[in-house]
């Protein structure tokens, strides 16, 4: 089962960080919600930081955070490792894309929910 970290996961069903979690779960991903508040979202343990998730390397990391937050997380994402880094609308500022590339990540600037839904 492929793994995905939803960075900016939310318990609010109106937020895309929640919609993405549900969509990826429905698409067959093993979902790891990342939210600094921790707790649970949709019955899944939410991790306060990507480094806390019990996964060696993610298949996919999908960002739903403002660019300033995303910039601060890129070093942690690069250290953890992922095959795909998705910068969703609102998280896809040019400076985030540039820093991701500097760190050896190849960001995908698109909506991961749309991509996930294509596989259904």
Automatic annotation (TrEMBL):
It comes from the Bacteria. It holds the Pfam family CoA_binding_2. Residues 1-91 form the CoA-binding domain. InterPro entries: CoA-bd, NAD(P)-bd_dom_sf. SUPFAM superfamilies: NAD(P)-binding Rossmann-fold domains. PANTHER family: COA-BINDING DOMAIN-CONTAINING PROTEIN, CYTOPLASMIC PROTEIN-RELATED. This is CoA-binding domain-containing protein. It comes from Pseudobythopirellula maris.
